[in-house]
Design a protein that fits this description.
about 1000 residues; mainly alpha; five-stranded parallel β-sheet; two-stranded antiparallel sheet; flat
């Protein structure tokens, strides 16, 4: 018998600890249920995180000073009459335990009995008088009531309790059930008399029938101050033992049933990051785990513990803990049910009818049992879907060859689709057969014509593997086709399998190159660890101009993504285009010219548009619009960089439907990401969030690295969502890009993060982040400032950090480049920051004039959010000029712009910016007016008694920055102490410290 009380750790701040990943809404609902009806049943499959949710609620209750009792059952409890009830009595009545070392509860995403945590915990003691020692969240009041709860019981009830806890012998006729019912009800009532009590029963499905009966009666009579959470993992239905299962603790009308659902893919990514596990494969981990947090963490840890990093193109490691967890989930079902599930795992489109016709007459009932156990889901038409990808793979992995062969043979006899029939016949035999291989190859062509590229890739590889060894040339040709088909379908695992098989054979150099290129094309961002493939591809392409052009094209991509060398990338693209053009390969030529145009733009070359136009013309001639759209997409991105947002949107609206219908998944993802950027830039915030969400969904579904999609979401959230979420997505993107070695998206994500940090007042971190962007862009020799507009953000961060000279120098460096390249809106961004520089230099009149003009020109350029940002800056300057009415008008104009655009975080910023703070005018404030805005803010805080550390925390600066800034303040005001500073500020009684955005820094 296991029964422990749980003392949740007291949270560090008000409101309790943060919610487990993805469970904030569920926690709020559970809290409402408990404060309403007082009874809740948490249910869901093993590992989904039910106990974690209960732990979080227990922590909240403990933070409010409530008593928390935690009962965790074990399988053996069901066969021990009264086990759980006795444990509950022991919990309530135990003497205070000696303080125990603080231990944290089970990790996020796990379930099962939580370990005791808190200032004191249960400790087993010898002797029948105290079967367990326990503490509660409110140790002292509960202990004071411990003896009261028993001493106040009538004799028969006290005797019954003693028998239950084995403190007294149990007579042959058993204990007095009525007395015991009444005793347990009185004990709980006494416990709840003085303060609210939360009782958590974790593993209620393992409770013995006697305890269930006692608790049911006691809870029926319990006062409202006693709230109860029952945590249940549904078991597979077994008609043989159904009669022995205990009745529930309450009738359905007495409690709310809350299902703990699997996590979404994005939440799995957040969970992995929370546990410091690789997040770049979050999509594939989500598919394998089905959103089950325990499975996801096990898979993530197996990847993290691998001797060599698991590459994007490799199969996920499902050995060890992850595979064992899958076996545990499957183990709740009988062998007969697992046999039915094996057929479902082998079928392409499993249905209950198909499985029954394949020789499982009890298919419907077996699948119903599996559904109750959380292994599969069933639709009304009988379609079967496994809840986690690791489940069917484990079933197939653990089945012997004979079982798999017989299953495929049975399915081949009953499927009604010729493509599926051929597939099952091929998988039912391990004897290569050329006639069968030819049939499978034909089936692959049929699947391709249907648009099912993933099935086509699988069948193409199966055709190659079914080809007899004596047909060596045919097998090699089919392996090459399989690798290329896998690349078209973004099936990295199949591409690697086909290439590995081919490279182990005596093949022609051209075939080896094509197989290696297929692997590279499925690698996504993860090109860092593939140097060996590039080297061998270059060697084998010697003497073959067309193949050498193809290899150079892939090298051009690698040089910019993995190596961060755009110059070398451009040179490789130029060579690739020349080689491909010399042999009439228009497709490769177009793709190489597109890469060249991208690099020319990055490096500030005036030839970028000419090269891109040439690539676009070749692309449209070589393939219809919607297929292989690199040049078309880059054209749209150039319009975005130039803030020709109307053109960009029109081209996106024309191209996106075609790409969704017949293009590659990578093109669709990039178009949705670009759409999100365009809509965010033009102030259509809801559309930006929608497109960014769609990009992430496609990315995770395809199993690609989520770094680029997270970057798009960071921009969309910055525009119309939440600054805090934007910072979170930007951090995730940076981490994934670092894991992949992607220099391009690392700079982009850091830019997005630094911008949010700056806007929310986290100046020190913003400066650090944006300096990283500056270093990365300079290391890559970036010239064109329109592609990533970090210059203005870094200059503003420098101003906020009291480095006006460095800010001015940065603006002076970028302005001539922007003028030469005609980047008009880049110059507007520089003007906005230069106006802030003028204000900090004691020229508020000039600053106000420039900001007014800048806001007007942003409006003319169709950039509402930039206009609103300039208006907020104008309001700050007008306050320094003591023109409160003008400041208020600027803020109201900014709020109107943001409200019209749906820019929620910016609207909050505009409405919460203080307008009534008195600031010294230059003509009236004397020495005080010589302070910059940042210096004035610090002076106000210190003058009101803040220490250097407190001021640093309030303004999100380092202590060293505060010390340096105070030194300048003392010099300007000619004071030598804090008391003298307070006296100097006393001449302006209306001055007060600045308001900090409510979200604080984006941490």
């Amino acid at each position: 018998m296991t029964s422990v009380s749980y003392v949740p750790p007291r949270p560090a701040g008000v409101g309790g600890p943060p919610a487990p990943v993805g469970r904030a809404e569920l926690l709020e609902r559970l809290d409402r249920v408990l404060h309403g009806r007082g009874r809740a049943l948490l249910t869901g499959p093993a590992g989904v995180g039910k106990s974690e949710v209960a732990l979080a609620i227990a922590a909240r209750a403990e933070a409010r000073g409530e008593t928390v009792l935690w009962l965790a059952t074990l399988p053996g409890d069901r066969a021990t009459p009264g086990a759980v009830a006795a444990a509950l009595v022991a919990l309530v009545c135990a003497q205070p335990a000696a303080p125990a070392p603080r231990r944290r509860p089970a990790a996020s995403g796990t379930s099962g009995a939580p370990r005791t945590s808190g200032t004191s915990g249960p400790a087993a003691t010898s002797g029948p008088a105290a079967p367990a020692r326990a503490s509660t969240a409110s140790a002292t009041p509960a202990t004071a009531r411990a003896h009261d709860a028993l001493d106040g019981l009538p004799g028969p009830q006290r005797s019954a309790v003693a028998m239950l806890c084995r403190e007294a012998p149990v007579p042959d006729e058993g204990w007095d059930r009525i007395a015991l019912r009444l005793a347990l009800a009185q004990i709980l009532r006494t416990l709840a008399d003085r303060s609210p009590v939360l009782l958590v029963v974790d593993g209620v499905q393992r409770m013995d029938a006697d305890s269930a009966d006692l608790l049911r009666f006691a809870l029926h009579l319990a006062p409202a101050a006693l709230r109860v959470i029952a945590v249940e993992t549904p078991e597979a239905y077994d008609p043989g033992t159904a009669a022995d299962a205990p009745e529930p603790l309450w009738v359905p009308s007495e409690a709310d049933v809350l299902t703990v659902a699997p996590l979404h893919a994005d939440e799995i990514a957040e969970l992995l990051i929370h546990h410091r596990l690789p997040s770049r494969m979050a999509g594939r981990i989500h598919r394998a785990s089905g959103g089950n947090p325990r499975l996801a963490l096990a898979i993530g840890r197996s990847l993290a513990d691998a001797r060599t990093p698991v590459h994007h193109a490799e199969a996920l490691s499902l050995s060890g803990r992850a595979r064992d967890l899958a076996r545990q989930l499957l183990g709740v079902s009988s062998p007969a049910v697992r046999g039915t599930l094996l057929l479902a795992a082998l079928a392409l489109r499993p249905t209950a009818s198909l499985i029954r016709r394949a020789g499982r007459p009890t298919a419907e009932s077996d699948l119903a049992v599996a559904e109750r156990a959380g292994l599969v889901s069933l639709t009304e038409d009988g379609t079967v879907a496994f809840t986690a990808g690791v489940l069917p793979s484990t079933l197939v992995h653990d089945a012997c060859w004979i079982e798999r062969s017989e299953g495929h043979a049975a399915l081949a006899r009953v499927v009604d689709d010729p493509v599926e029939e051929v597939r099952h016949r091929a998988l039912a035999t391990d004897i290569p057969d050329e006639r069968l291989a030819a049939e499978v190859a034909a089936a692959a062509d049929a699947a391709r014509r249907r648009g099912n590229s993933r099935l086509a890739a699988e069948l193409a590889l199966l055709a190659a593997e079914s080809t007899p060894g004596r047909h060596g040339a045919q097998r090699i040709a089919r392996l090459v086709d399989a690798a290329e088909e896998a690349a078209r379908a973004a099936r990295a695992d199949l591409a690697v399998r086909a290439a590995t098989d081919l490279l182990s054979r005596d093949t022609a150099p051209a075939d080896r190159v094509r197989a290696r290129l297929a692997v590279l094309d499925t690698a996504g961002q993860g090109l860092t660890d593939l140097d060996e493939i590039y080297v061998h591809a270059m060697e084998d392409s010697e003497g073959d101009t067309a193949l050498r052009a193809a290899v150079q094209l892939r090298l051009a991509v690698k040089y910019v993504l993995a190596d961060g060398d755009p110059v070398r990338s451009r040179d490789a693209a130029v060579e690739s285009a020349a080689l491909a053009g010399s042999v009439g390969d228009a497709r490769t030529t177009a793709r190489a010219l597109t890469v060249q145009a991208r690099m020319e733009r990055f490096l500030g070359s005036p030839d970028a548009e000419r090269v891109l136009a040439e690539a676009r013309a070749l692309e449209l001639v070589e393939r219809p619009l919607g297929i292989r759209n690199a040049a078309q997409i880059l054209t749209i991105r150039h319009a975005l960089f130039d803030d020709r947002l109307g053109d960009a949107r029109d081209q996106l609206n024309a191209l996106l439907p075609l790409v969704e219908r017949r293009g590659t998944i990578e093109d669709a993802i990039e178009l949705f990401n670009t759409s999100a950027e365009v809509e965010a830039r033009r102030g259509s915030c809801a559309a930006a969030l929608s497109h960014a969400g769609r990009s992430l969904a496609l990315t995770l579904e395809a199993g690609l690295s989520p770094g680029p999609a997270w970057y798009g979401l960071a921009l969309a959230e910055t525009a119309g969502g939440s600054f805090a979420r934007a910072a979170s997505y930007a951090r995730r993107s940076a981490q994934a890009s670092e894991e992949e070695g992607d220099h391009v998206f690392l700079s982009r994500s850091l830019y997005a993060l630094g911008r949010v940090q700056l806007v929310t007042g986290d100046v020190a971190n913003a400066l650090e982040t944006l300096r990283r962007v500056q270093a990365g862009e300079r290391a890559q020799s970036a010239v064109d400032p329109s592609m990533l507009r970090w210059h203005e953000e870094l200059a503003e961060a420098l101003l906020a950090n009291d480095s006006p000279e460095e800010a001015a120098a940065l603006l002076a460096d970028v302005r001539p480049v922007a003028e030469r390249l005609g980047r008009t809106t880049v110059l507007l961004g520089c003007d906005r920051v230069y106006a802030l520089y003028l204000a900090a230099s004691g020229k508020p009149d000039e600053a106000a004039t420039l900001l007014s003009d800048t806001a007007r020109r942003f409006d003319e350029a169709g950039l509402p959010l930039e206009r609103g940002r300039a208006l907020i800056a104008l309001a700050r300057v007008e306050r320094r000029r003591r023109r409160r009415s003008a400041a208020q008008s600027a803020l109201q104009a900014a709020a109107t712009v943001f409200e019209r655009s749906g820019a929620a975080p910016w609207l909050a910023l505009a409405t919460e910016t203080p307008t009534g703070t008195a600031e010294p005018a230059p003509s009236q404030g004397g020495a005080l007016s010589s302070l910059t805005e940042a210096e004035l803010h610090l002076a106000l805080l210190v003058g009101q008694g803040a220490s250097n550390q407190e001021a640093a925390a309030r303004l999100y600066l380092s202590v060293k920055t505060v010390e340096a800034r105070l030194t300048r303040i003392y010099q300007k005001l000619d004071v030598r102490s804090r008391s003298q500073l307070a006296t100097a500020l006393g001449a302006w009684p209306g001055l007060r410290p600045p308001a900090i955005p409510p979200d604080g820094p984006a941490s």
